[in-house]
Design goal:
By secondary structure, the protein is mainly β. It contains 2 helices and 22 strands.
Length: 311
């Protein structure tokens, strides 16, 4: 991965900064070749894809230095082309219909002095295609992917060192080549990201972050399954009023609460996962366990707990 950064401008240092705002553009281009089938039904195919997204976001900084924020993103281009030859059916080519959704940008991080480490994530960004046929007896099934969400994480979007005194910009790139016995693929990822300290202009909103007020409320805690088998993973559902750094703590067998899952999540309904273990201990049947969701945002920490018994 390569990264370049620049800082320019003469923006006054923000003491107890209100935060900042930013933009990002991401592009992922993939070129894949695949040999499939067996004689006399061999198929050689090539696919080229291009996914482009654009993001805007804003964030606030609490007196503790905790950064919370949000934003929005959309796909600005989505294109896939497939072509090849079937030994029995001849040549084929098509552009499968692919679409991308609008999605939330999750912003987190920690400030220290006139600098900060910012994290950006787009967990809900998704690409989707329906069933398609290309001729030559070549067809594909409906699929859903998270290529651009993975792309942002891959280039280092979760750890961006920014200035709180002046604008900062980066170009982040990553190329991934993979090969198997039946084909190869080359994926090129390019992201340009910029941040500016101070209030966000009209049109760049971040929910509670943009409004200047922030109130963290956690509700709707539920475990699924509510009565799991010993060692069975459990999904813990909850709702947050704002984008939040959420952690799942598990306790039982006289052991102190242990973090088992942690991530930045957007406002709304979210989920964390317990693996079914308490540290290195696999609970036995009829074991009492307490799962606690701990959320940190708006310079405050809130907790909700649910008790369950394994079977």
């Amino acid at each position: 991965m390569t990264a370049s950064a620049s800082a320019s401008g003469d923006v006054r240092l923000l003491a107890a900064s209100a935060g900042g705002y930013g933009t990002a553009q991401g592009v992922e281009v993939s070129d894949a070749q695949l040999d499939s089938g067996s004689p006399p039904d061999e198929v050689d195919s090539t696919s080229v894809s291009d996914y482009d997204v654009s993001l805007t976001f804003a964030f606030t900084i609490a007196p503790s230095g905790l950064i919370t924020g949000a934003g929005k993103g959309e796909y600005t281009a989505v294109h896939v082309h497939v072509e090849g030859r079937s030994r029995r059916k001849g040549a084929f080519a098509c552009d499968p219909p692919v679409s991308g959704n609008s999605f939330a940008v999750v912003v987190g991080g920690q400030a220290r002095g006139d600098s900060a480490v910012l994290s950006l994530a787009i967990p809900d960004a998704a690409e989707h295609n329906g069933d398609y046929t290309c001729g030559g007896a070549y067809s594909g099934h409906a699929a859903r992917s998270h290529i651009m969400a993975d792309s942002l994480a891959l280039v280092g979007g979760g750890h961006l060192e920014i200035s709180l005194a002046r604008p900062t910009s980066w170009t982040l790139t990553k190329t991934v080549d993979s090969r198997s016995t039946d084909g190869s693929e080359a994926d090129a990822h390019t992201w340009t990201i910029s941040t500016t300290p101070g209030g966000a202009p009209v049109g760049i909103a971040a929910g509670a972050a943009a409004g200047g007020s922030c109130s963290l409320v956690l509700t709707g805690l539920a475990a699924s399954p509510s009565h799991p088998l010993a060692g069975q993973p459990v999904i813990v559902l909850f709702r947050s009023s704002v984008a939040v750094h959420a952690s799942l703590l598990v306790s039982g067998s006289g052991r102190p609460a242990t973090p088992t899952d942690s991530r930045n999540v957007p406002a709304g309904e979210d989920a964390l996962v317990w693996s079914g273990w308490i540290g290195d201990l696999l609970p036995s049947a009829s074991h009492h366990v307490e799962l606690t969701v701990e959320g940190t945002a708006c310079d405050s920490t809130k907790r909700l707990s649910v008790a369950l018994t394994t079977r």
